[in-house]
């Protein structure tokens, strides 16, 4: 067996979800909404599978969707993309990440990773033979610093794997953070693989700034998006990749030998969805903001120290004030003794550098959030 994968432990997400199923706990750990997704988009997929084309579509994605992606990013983010040479469709953002890493990174290349990070990043970098260099972000602000970047970048740096908005911390990086990152990428001639799947799930009037649109980054960035996150259809696994033609040519070859193509009916439905008017996207953010605020207020009323959520489906609490120093042990007790599943954020750090932060998913029905809060009330009482 390949030792890289054979030696990987069961992910904490599966551990906590299994415990939730076994105990009947309320699962606020897994990152998907209760909502089934917009009905008109789902109906478009159903119509396309019944009345549309169901054979192999173009490897790069159906023209209709690639055009829609370019138009969508022009409208929302001011990007000028050539749909024919700079846009590709993948079977989810994780496949897009795998293809980008395998297409760019060669054995011995250094790759800068910002932890906490999505759990697929590190195994994929190692699979490509890359040498990870970590920038460890600290709560509660999780900001970039020149000192930390200086320690991670070197003449051997080939790529940077960056996630904004950041899962699990629910951080939206500031303009100054992004400018600093772009400065280091230019200085060290590094390609930024930018995981921007949460680009539409941002709050409090924020607007997403793509790395691709930063000064000097147009020809050294790979932008990755996700229809699953945009439309709360996480099971569809339709991803977007945008990059300059000289990069895209290589990423297309990598994609060809991973999944090759993506179901055409889902592509057609996503093309329809991306053309929806501003009201859908603003309304989606408004609904998630309301859920975030409801759950935040409930946690604070109970006495939890909540780290503000700026984007994504998540918010975090700092368990230090409860006298807790081990987030994994805390989450196990939470699910077994209190009937609520959450995720320890140390699982997103390669070395478990931070052990005092716990992540909840608030993209749930009010009744689910309220039931979770009712069960969580005993946690602070016992700590006191």
Automatic annotation (TrEMBL):
Transmembrane segments: none annotated. It is an enzyme of class 2 (transferase). It comes from the Bacteria. Its EC number is 2.6.1.1. One of its GO terms (cellular component) is cytoplasm. InterPro entries: Aminotransferase_I/II_large, Kynurenine-oxoglutarate_AT, PyrdxlP-dep_Trfase, PyrdxlP-dep_Trfase_major, PyrdxlP-dep_Trfase_small. SUPFAM superfamilies: PLP-dependent transferases (SSF53383). Its cofactor is pyridoxal 5'-phosphate. Keywords: Aminotransferase, Pyridoxal phosphate, Transferase. It catalyses: L-aspartate + 2-oxoglutarate = oxaloacetate + L-glutamate. Residues 25-376 form the Aminotransferase class I/classII large domain. One of its GO terms (molecular function) is kynurenine-oxoglutarate transaminase activity. PANTHER family: FI04487P. Belongs to the class-I pyridoxal-phosphate-dependent aminotransferase family. Homodimer. This is 8-amino-7-oxononanoate synthase. It comes from Microvirga makkahensis.
